[in-house]
Amino acid sequence: MSVWDDLPGQEAAVGQLRRAAADGTPTHAWLFTGPPGSGRSNAARSFAAALQCAAPAPGDRGCGQCQACRTVMAGTHPDVSLVATENVTYAIADVRELIGRAQDRPSGGKWRVIIMEDADRMTERTTNVLLKSIEEPPPHTVWILCAPSPADVLVTVRSRCRSIGLRVPSRDAVAELLVRRDGLTADQAEFAARVSQGHIGIARRLARDEGARLRRDRTVRLPLGLRGVSDAVLAAAELVELATAEATASAEERGAADARQLRETLGLDPDAAVPPQLRSQFKQLEELNKRRARRGANDSLDRALIDLTTFFRDVLAVQLGTGTELVNDYLARELRAYAGRSTAEQTLARIDYIAEARERIAANVQPLLAMEAMMAGLLPDR
């Protein structure tokens, strides 16, 4: 199984990356773009693995079997750095540290590869700090920046990178991957691929995690229970609670793993008291976990709003008689009944309310206030 197998529906992009890896002299800076669910980070990691691959034939680079491929895909290769921020934006100090890392020669691999997720989270000032390293990198360094679209990165950086455009894979391609890679049944894979709208990571989580399925179902059903203002207030609180619970659980699990790893690194037993001189390191880890939970809650809430949008898109499809397959077809009866009580114009207005709420969350408006305003807009007209 090669490193390219987890990129369904990306044949054009994979072809370009395979040729670049086989060439042996890749461009020094790349920009991977695509909407959420297109697999930007997976594609970047697969390309990094192909660059480090030990396969003798150039056409086999990215074999997935050699030690270099396995360690890159596992995130443990010493010459491949996968960087993400837990903050709203990248700090200048973090970018400067990356630039310093880019100067180091590879310790054993062919290249020093730095993958920067969410490059759109760099401010203009931070991007300008990175610019010189992108313009004149060391000959052994390859930068890979990931962002939703080329417009999300300053033109000064964009113009110095080779662009790779990715798209959300088809539902059939995602379902086939889930069956082949994760051993799901065809029905499980088809359901997860449909309701995730082609987002591989979310489809896998929905297929494997019953709690995630239940949370999504509760989110999608929220409009069915709206009758008055009190219902809107309660629904807003429930939506925030669902998003916060999921993000907190994920952050706590990751934080516990990081704490265990830090104890092992410092030579502390699992139950041993932390010496005073080491407490600052654990305090930093706690602060990191809090930031991770806050960002995770906002990301989870945004995903919940995307799921909520699918309810109204299905309603609109029924109202317009488009004949397209419903995303939430298991709610077909409820969707048709809801569609009969409103007009297409009202449904479009409700979709706009959700889009406005997503913008407010991105602008750091207090989540509960944003959700209450949105839910008030979703109330049925008298």
Beta-strand proportion: 5-15%
SSE string: HEHHEHEHEHEHHHHHHHHH
Shape: globular
Helix content: 55-70%
Uncertain spans, ≥5 residues at pLDDT below 50? none
What does this structure look like?
The structure is a single chain. The chain has 382 residues and is α/β, with parallel strands linked by helices. Helix content is 59%, strand content 7%. It has 15 helices and 5 strands. It has helices at residues 11-23, 40-52, 67-74, 92-102, 124-135, 155-158, 171-182, 186-195, 200-208, 210-221, 229-266, 279-320, 332-340, 344-362, 367-378, and strands at 29-33, 80-83, 112-116, 141-147, 162-165. A 5-stranded parallel sheet has the order 2-3-4-1-5, covered by helices on one side. Strand 2, helix 4 and strand 3 (112-116) form a beta-alpha-beta unit. Helix 2 (40-52) runs antiparallel to helix 3, helix 12 packs across helix 13 and helix 12 (279-320) packs antiparallel against helix 14 (344-362). The longest helix has 42 residues, at 279-320. The model has no long low-confidence stretch (mean pLDDT 87).
Key traits:
single chain; alpha/beta
Short synopsis of the structure:
The chain is of the alpha/beta class.
Blueprint of the fold:
Blueprint: H1 11-23, E1 29-33, H2 40-52, H3 67-74, E2 80-83, H4 92-102, E3 112-116, H5 124-135, E4 141-147, H6 155-158, E5 162-165, H7 171-182, H8 186-195, H9 200-208, H10 210-221, H11 229-266, H12 279-320, H13 332-340, H14 344-362, H15 367-378
